[in-house]
Amino acid sequence: MAVQDGMFRAVAVLRVLLLANAVALNVYRRDNFVHPTAGLVLVLVMVAWTFVANWAYADRRRRRPPLLVADLLVAVALIAATPWVKGAGFNATLPGYWVMGALLAWAIHWRLVGGTVAACALVAADLLSRQEMNQTNYGNVFLLLLGGVVVGYLVDLLQRMAVARDVAEREAAVAGERARLARAVHDGVLQVLALVQRRGGEPGGDAELGRLAGEQEQALRALIRQQDALQVPTDEDGEVDLGPVLEALGLLRSPRVSVATPGTPVPLPAQSAGEVEAVVRACLHNVEVHVGDDAPAWVLLEDLGDRVVVSVRDEGPGIADGRLAAAEAEGRLGVSGSIRGRVADLGGTAELITGAFGTEWELTFPRDPER
Amino acid sequence: MSDGDAQQPVRVMVVDDHPMWRDAVERDLAAAGFDVVAVAANGTEALARFPAARPGVVVLDLQIPAPNGVEVTAEVVRLDPSARVLILSASGEQDDVLDAVKAGATGYLVKSASSAELLDAVRRVSRGDTVFTPGLAGLVLGEFRRMLDAPPSDDGSSRLTERETEVLRLVAKGLSYKQIAERLVLSHRTVQNHVQNTLRKLQLHNRVQLTRYAIEQGLDDEDE
C-alpha cells in the first residue's frame, strides 16, 4: 500500500505537468479548432478533471473502481471528441499526452492487467477517431501500449518486494526480541544453576546435585556461545571467527578447559579455523591422557594482526626429557610430533615449554599476507 | 583507607536482583566476618544506599535492572574513589565485563565460583588487589591490541610495557600470581603491581576517551 501511495503522489505531480503541456499546446494550436468554444470548454474540463482526480486519488479510501473508470472515460471521451472540435483531419488529439495520467492510475491500481486494459482503451479511442495513420501516430500508440504494460508490471514487482521486505523486517524484529528475552531467561537460569552448584559444595549440601547443576550451567553457557557464533556465520570471504570455535571447547567434559579470547572476532579462513581447532583438540586430548580426566587446562587465543597465537597449558607433570626423542627413535610419531606437523602444514610454528610446572604449547599461525 | 584496620571488618554492599543469590552471598560474607552494610536489588537502590552505607567493597551483579552494573560501577567509583567494586556475573566474560572494568571495577568473578573463592576475592579486592579471571585477562589483552590499531593518544595509557603484557598473558593462561612470580622470578607484589597497572591504564584510557568524546561533541563547558 505504501508503494501505491508513493506512486499516486508521483502521478499527481505528473498530471499537473501533463496538463500544463496539453493546455499550452492547445493554446498554441488554437487556429486548428473548428469549434473554438467547444474546444475551450473541453480544455477547461481537462483542467477541472486534473484537480478533481488529484484530490480524489490522494486518499486511499477514494481510490475505488468508479473513480478509475471515470478517469479513463474522461480521457477516452476527450480523445473521441477531438475529430468534432478539430475537424476530421486533425493531427494531435486534444488531451495529447495528458491521457497518461489515467493510464498510470490504472497500471498502479490494477497493475499489469489494469495497465494493459487502459492502454488498449486509449489506443482504440485514438485509432477509431483518426481517418488515417502515420508513423508518428503509430509510434505514440505503441509507446502508450508499452508504457501501460511495463508500468503495470513494475508496480506488481515493487509491491511484491515491499511485501517480502516487510516480512523480513518483521522476522528480524521477532528474532531480535526472542534473543533479548532468551538472554534474560538464560541469565536467570545460569544464576540458579550456579547457586545450586554453590550450595552443593557447602557442608551438608547435595554434592551430586551441585555437580549436575555445574554440568548444565556449562552446557547452557556453551549453547549461548554457539548461538552468538551462529549469528556471525561465515562471511563472504569464507572466513569464520575463531573465538567461538575455540570457546566451544570449554564444553568438553574432560579436561576442564578455560578459554580466553580477545572478545572481538578473530577471522580466519573456515578451513584453517577447522585445522586450528583440531590441533588444539589434539593438545587437550594429550592433557586428558597424560594429566588426567579432571585436569584443568587453559586455552588463550590472541590476534596479533599478521598472526594468530593459540596457547594451550596444563599443570601436569610435564613431558620428561628425552621422551619425545625416544618416541621418534622408536619410529612413533607421537602426539607432539603430530601437533608440530599439523601446525607446520598451516605454515605455523609450535613451541613447547615443559617442566615440573606443566606443559605449554604456543602455536603461532601466520595470516595470509594478502588479506 | 582501602587497606583498613586489620581489626575493623570490611564493609560490604551486595547488589543482586536475585533474592536467593543476594541472601546466599550475604550469609557467606557475614559468616566469614565481613560487615554487610547494605544490600540492593537494582541500580537505583544501589546508588541511593551507597552514600549512607559507605561500603569498602561493592559485590555487584552486572545484570541488574537499570541503571546497569557498568553505570553503577562508574558512579560508585566517582562518589568514592576508595571504594572497590567486585563484579559477580552469571553470563561469563563478555563485553559488559570489560566495560565494568574500564569503568573502575577491580575484581571479577563468575557466579559458579565457590564461596571460598568469593570470600578470597572480596578480601583481596578490599586490600586493593585486583582479581582477574583468565577470560577477563584475554579480553583486556585484546582491548590493548585494539587500542594499538586506533589513533595513538600519546599519553602512554594505551600501551602496555613488555613486562605487563607478559604478566597479563600468563594470567590469561590461567597462572596464579604466585605461579607467575615463580616463572618470571619476581616478587608476588611486583606481579600484583603489573596487573594493577594494566587496569589503571585501561581505566585512564577510558576516561581520556570519554573526555575527548565530550569535547568533540561540545559537551565540555570549559572548552567553550
Automatic annotation (TrEMBL), chain A:
Protein's UniProt keywords contain Transcription: no
Spans through the membrane: 34-55, 67-85, 97-125, 137-155
Protein keywords: Kinase, Membrane, Transferase, Transmembrane, Transmembrane helix, Two-component regulatory system
Pfam families tied to this protein: DUF5931 (PF19354)
GO biological process, one term: phosphorelay signal transduction system
DUF5931 domain boundaries: 1-157
GO MF term list: kinase activity
Domain of life: Bacteria
PANTHER family reported in the protein's UniProt record: NITRATE/NITRITE SENSOR PROTEIN NARX-RELATED, OXYGEN SENSOR HISTIDINE KINASE NREB
Protein name (Swiss-Prot/TrEMBL): Histidine kinase
UniProtKB/TrEMBL annotation, chain B:
GO biological process: phosphorelay signal transduction system; regulation of DNA-templated transcription
SMART domains: HTH_LUXR, REC
Response regulatory domain boundaries: 11-126
Domain of life of the native organism: Bacteria
PTM-bearing positions, type 4-aspartylphosphate: D61
Keyword Phosphoprotein among UniProt keywords: yes
Domain HTH luxR-type: 153-218
Annotated GO MF terms: DNA binding
Entry keywords, A to Z: DNA-binding, Phosphoprotein
DNA-binding as UniProt keyword: yes
Entry protein name: Response regulator transcription factor
Organism: Nocardioides guangzhouensis
